[in-house]
Design brief:
The chain is α/β, with parallel strands linked by helices. 34% of the residues lie in helices and 14% in strands. It contains 18 helices and 19 strands. The radius of gyration is 25 Å and the shape is globular.
């Protein structure tokens, strides 16, 4: 590898040829501020926050796109650089809606943080302000252009990482904006509600639709029986909102907090994840044995489902008819649990705590009702749960660990790993392998389907049968995988797709990662938190869950029964690609 010499702030170092000045500075632990920059995703130098002074250059240069050159001498902290960055921030703030105290990103905003660090005490400019209507048409995402700083990060995430392309720049000059086709509402275009745009927006221009008041109202209604379910990935991320280490398992404190908030019962989505494996695994074996449509593709991720509905109509028959664990839980809660608890289903309010903004959209789909009753009544994200805990003035770290309630609260390690990419596949293989062999197999960790590679493939020999599987996460990767299947280049029995890169651990409703370059490390730590829980569980296969067994014995009879299909299965529909 060819190396070049560069001097930054008086320190001379060698960096690989082709490095940018920003990368060279990072290698010396010299921090250059950025706003629009996202490594390998949005490297355009548009915000100019990363400007540096280069000896011999006529003007300041954007370090994120400036190639390091042999003998280059750079200053990152000269008076000219500091004054320029401060002026750039003031110009941004001149058009920005500066209602920080009421903003969802207050104290967690990159623009706010830079303003404090660079000493912006007043804004010397007054720009032309355009009052944009806030787009709250989506059930999942709110878009407020009055707070947008035109960094373009959301556009690149939507277009290049997710290959959805629901938003883009429009107009010119002072009227430049980020918007949808023909300025339609997000609910009218091909937005898949994944919320990755929220995760990468540096300010509060994008946020989830806040449903906390709806939940508070339900909790205050003495006539309602309010139950809550918690998704696998929430327990290894919620602690971050309270200053705990990334990946810390806070399951016990989370349960205790939910009980303090006033929920009548606290249950676990891991239970219905185990239930999903019984239904989906049976569906897979049925398709293999009876010449059904293959590959069977998982249907747990609502963002992925909507992406498929818009863009890959020829694969709709491949989608599993199983509802997601969230929806299965709601359907079972308002039937089986309601019957056992003596509760009128119409007087039951089911709340989901999810790492995913698209779950808000999923809960409102017409297909997610049984006999006119919605499976799930309200969905809040990990961030929204943290907000409620803080509003209730609960000292989260000091809570003694609680336990899930019975009937719908037991789960196995297989249900836990649903939160990481490859987890659904691994959980399914554990059960399918036992069914096909008729044995209680001990080798149950399927390493080829783990990890953060965009597409993972494996062929697992089970009782003489080669079961070919694939895993994709992020809808751009899903699209590439479907193209390979469509062309005949690849052939599988079973495919897992998660809409968000990394799976649910990196869902659009998870805690915001301020340092975007640590995103992969955060995903890895959260996933490891789930795999650690799995390893510590006595039961690690979905079909071993005693409460799931009881559900079938007492109510559903068997997987894929008529009653199971009525409650736990659904269908999907072709949508226009607007």
């Amino acid at each position: 590898m060819e190396m070049i010499n560069i001097t930054i702030d008086g320190i001379t170092t060698q960096v690989p040829k082709g490095s940018t000045v920003l990368q060279a500075a990072k290698s010396l632990n010299i921090d250059i501020p950025t706003l629009c920059y996202l490594k390998d995703i949005n490297e355009v130098g548009s915000c100019r926050m990363c400007v540096v002074e280069v000896q011999g250059a006529r003007s300041l240069q954007a370090s994120c796109v400036l190639p390091a050159a042999e003998g280059m001498v750079v200053k990152t902290n000269s008076p000219t650089v500091r004054n320029s960055r401060k002026m750039i921030l003031e110009l941004m703030l001149a058009r920005h809606e500066r209602e920080c105290l009421t903003c969802a990103r207050n104290l967690n905003c990159e623009l706010q943080k830079l303003s404090e660090e660079l000493g912006v005490e007043k804004v010397r400019f007054e720009g032309e302000k355009i009052n944009y209507a806030v787009d709250s048409t989506s059930p999942a995402i709110v878009r407020d252009q009055n707070k947008c700083i035109l960094c373009g990060r959301c556009i690149k995430i939507c277009k290049n990482v997710q290959e959805t392309g629901a938003i883009d720049f429009a107009r010119r000059g002072v009227r430049t904006t980020v918007t949808t086709s023909f300025d339609k509402g997000l609910n009218e275009v091909r937005c898949i509600n994944c919320g990755q745009c929220i995760k990468f927006c540096p300010v509060g221009a994008l946020k989830e639709k806040d449903d906390t008041e709806k939940v508070w109202d339900a909790l205050a209604d003495s006539d309602m029986h309010v139950v809550v379910q918690t998704a696998p990935a929430v327990r290894v991320a919620l602690g971050e909102e309270f200053g705990m280490e990334v990946g810390t398992n806070v399951e016990g404190q989370m349960i205790a907090a939910l009980k303090r908030l006033g929920f009548d019962k606290v249950f676990d989505t891991n239970f219905s994840a185990d239930l999903t494996i019984l239904e989906e695994g049976t569906e897979l074996l049925s398709r293999i044995n009876n010449g059904g449509k293959l590959p069977l593709i998982t249907s747990c991720s609502p963002g992925w489902i909507k992406f498929c509905e818009h863009n890959h109509h020829d694969f709709l028959e491949n989608l599993s008819s199983c509802k997601s664990p969230q929806q299965m839980f709601g359907a079972v809660a308002k039937s089986y649990y309601a019957q056992k608890a003596g509760v009128d289903p119409k007087k039951m309010f089911v709340v989901s705590v999810m790492p995913c903004t698209a779950k808000k959209y999923e809960a409102g789909r017409d297909e997610m009702k049984v006999e006119g009753l919605a499976d799930v009544d309200a969905v809040i994200t990990t961030r929204e749960l943290a907000k409620m805990i803080k509003q209730a003035r609960i000292d989260f770290k000091a809570l003694e660990k609680g336990s899930y309630d019975t009937i719908l609260g037991d789960s196995t390690g297989a249900g836990v790993i649903f939160g990481a990419t490859g987890g659904v596949m691994e959980a399914a293989l554990r059960t399918v392998a036992d069914i096909l062999t008729g044995q209680d197999l001990k080798e149950i960790e399927y390493m080829p389907v783990r990890g953060l590679d965009g597409i993972k493939e494996a062929s697992v020999n089970i009782n003489g049968m080669d079961v070919k599987v694939a895993v994709a996460h992020g809808t751009a990767n899903a699209g590439k995988l479907l193209d390979r299947i469509r062309s005949g280049e690849a052939n599988y029995h079973f495919v897992e797709v998660m809409g968000c890169p990394g799976g649910c651990i990196n869902g659009g409703g998870q805690p915001i990662i301020m340092d975007k370059e640590k995103t992969d490390e955060v995903k890895r730590l959260r996933a490891e938190g789930l795999y650690t829980i799995d390893r510590e569980r006595k039961l690690r296969k979905s079909h071993e869950n005693p409460e799931v067994k009881a559900l079938y014995d007492e109510y559903l009879e068997k997987p894929n029964s008529h009653k199971a299909h009525h409650l736990l299965h659904t269908h999907y529909t072709k949508r226009e690609r607007v």
